[in-house]
Design a protein that fits this description.
The chain is α/β, with parallel strands linked by helices and 391 residues long. The chain contains twelve helices and eleven strands. Helix 2 (87-101) crosses helix 12 and helix 8 (261-274) crosses helix 9 (291-301).
C-alpha cells in the first residue's frame, strides 16, 4: 500500500517592500494555511521554518515565532531549516521526512524572509555568504557576478544567451501582472530588457538590472498531511508524487557550472520517482534568481538539449499559453525572492494551480507541476513533482 503525502492547504502573503515584521509575516501565512486546510493548530504535530537570515534581521531564533500563530502550537517541535536560497524547500523536505518516519501525521511548513530594510549592498553581501569562502577568488564574488560567469561560459560554449535572457525577463514580468501577490507589477518589454540603459544598467556584465531577481519581503506556508491523518477532511489536496534533493560541490572550480548537473539530476530523479516525463508537466515554478539560471533550468528539465534552451522560448513552450509554462507566478524575477519563502511559495502556488485556485495565473486543467528550488550556484537542488488529486 502506498503511503502518500499530500499538501492540503496553503498560505501566502503579498511579496514586496512590506511594513510587517518577520513575525507578522510568519503568523499571517501560517494562519491562512491552517484555515485553507481546515485543520486546527492542535492537529499539527510539528512545524518547520525555512529562513536564510544570514544577519538580515535580529530575529535569529525564528523557528518558534510560528508558535505565535496560535496558543495550541505551544510545545510542538519547531525547527528552522537553512540551505541558502533553498531554505524553503529544505523545510518542506524536513516536514516530508517527519511524516515518512512516522514521527508526524500533519506538518505545518512556513518560509519567510525580511530583506528590504537592508541596503542592496548589505543584502548582496549576506547572500554572498552562500558561496565558497575558502577560496579568495570565489569568496570575493557576489551572486550577480557568479551568474555573470555562467552567462559568459554559456556564450563561449554555445553562443550568446543575451536574447534568451531578455525574453525570460520580459516573460516573467508579463506573468507577474496577473499575480496580485507579486512584488512588481510592471511590464518590461523585450527591447528594454535587451539593451543597457540608464534605467537598465549593467550590474555584473553581461547581466543587467532586468536579469536580476528582486530583494523582497514575504512569507508562504503549506500544510503537509499523511494519507491516513485524522485531522478531518481537507477541502482539496495535492499529492507529493516525488521530492528529490541533490547536493553538489560548493567550490565552482570542482565542477562544470554550465552543465548544471545538480539541477539536472534532481529533476530527472523526480520524474523517475513520479513515473512521468517532462512532456507530462502542465507547468513549472523554477528558481530564476538570474535569467541565465532559468535558461539553464530549461535544459535541466529536458525542454531543450544542452545549449539549445533558447528554443523553448522561440517556439513558445514556456510562455503562459505554451505547452509547459514556466513561472506563471512571475518567478523570483518579478514575484520576488524573499529567500526563505521562495521554495515554500513555489509549492503553495503549485497547490493552488492543481486545485483550481490560482486566480489570474491559473493553468486550466493542470494535473502535473514541477517546483525546483536551488540554493547557491546549483549546489542545493530540490525538485518536487506535484499531482492533482482527482479522486
Amino acid at each position: 500500500m502506498r503511503n502518500d503525502i499530500y499538501i492540503i492547504g496553503s498560505g501566502h502573503t503579498r511579496f514586496g517592500r512590506l511594513e510587517e515584521t518577520l513575525e507578522d509575516l510568519i503568523v499571517e501565512a501560517a494562519r491562512e494555511a491552517l484555515e485553507e486546510a481546515q485543520v486546527s493548530a492542535s492537529d499539527i504535530d510539528a512545524v518547520f521554518l525555512g529562513h536564510f537570515n544570514s544577519g538580515l534581521v535580529p530575529d535569529g531564533f525564528a523557528s518558534s515565532l510560528i508558535l505565535q500563530a496560535h496558543p495550541d502550537f505551544r510545545f510542538k517541535p519547531a525547527t528552522r531549516c537553512e540551505n541558502a536560497c533553498a531554505s524553503g524547500a529544505a523545510a518542506i523536505h524536513g516536514g516530508i521526512n517527519a511524516i515518512r518516519s512516522g514521527a508526524a501525521r500533519n506538518v505545518l511548513v512556513v518560509g519567510a524572509e525580511k530583506m528590504t530594510h537592508r541596503s542592496t549592498a548589505e543584502v548582496t553581501q549576506a547572500l554572498a555568504g552562500a558561496g565558497y569562502q575558502n577560496n579568495p577568488t570565489e569568496a570575493g564574488l557576489s551572486f550577480p557576478q557568479v551568474f555573470a560567469i555562467a552567462a559568459k561560459q554559456y556564450a563561449k560554449r554555445y553562443g550568446g544567451p543575451m536574447d534568451a535572457m531578455a525574453r525570460i525577463a520580459a516573460k516573467n514580468h508579463g506573468n507577474a501582472m496577473k499575480n496580485p501577490l507579486a512584488h512588481m507589477h510592471k511590464p518590461l518589454t523585450y527591447e528594454f530588457c535587451r539593451e543597457e540603459s540608464e534605467r537598465n544598467p549593467l550590474i555584473a556584465p553581461p547581466l543587467r538590472l532586468s536579469d536580476c531577481s528582486l530583494v523582497t519581503d514575504g512569507a508562504a506556508a503549506i500544510v503537509l498531511s499523511a494519507e491516513n491523518a485524522e485531522a478531518g477532511e481537507a477541502p482539496a489536496r495535492v499529492r507529493v508524487a516525488a521530492a528529490e534533493h541533490v547536493s553538489d560541490f560548493l567550490p565552482m572550480n570542482r565542477r562544470d557550472f554550465v552543465a548544471f548537473e545538480g539541477p539536472t539530476r534532481a529533476i530527472r530523479q523526480a520524474y523517475e520517482v513520479a513515473g512521468i516525463t517532462v512532456s507530462d508537466l502542465d507547468f513549472a515554478e523554477v528558481h530564476d534568481c538570474f535569467t541565465p539560471a532559468e535558461l539553464l533550468i530549461y535544459e535541466a528539465m529536458g525542454l531543450a538539449p544542452e545549449g539549445e534552451g533558447a528554443h523553448a522560448l522561440e517556439d513558445g513552450t514556456v510562455f503562459a499559453d505554451g505547452r509547459t509554462p514556466v513561472n506563471l507566478s512571475g518567478g523570483l524575477k518579478a514575484k520576488g525572492h524573499p529567500v526563505g519563502a521562495t521554495g515554500v511559495s513555489m509549492h503553495a502556488l503549485g497547490f493552488r494551480q492543481l486545485t483550481g485556485r490560482a486566480g489570474g495565473i491559473q493553468r486550466a486543467g493542470a494535473e502535473w507541476g514541477l517546483a525546483f528550488n536551488m540554493g547557491g550556484a546549483a549546489v542545493a537542488n530540490y525538485a518536487t513533482i506535484l499531482q492533482a488529486d482527482r479522486a
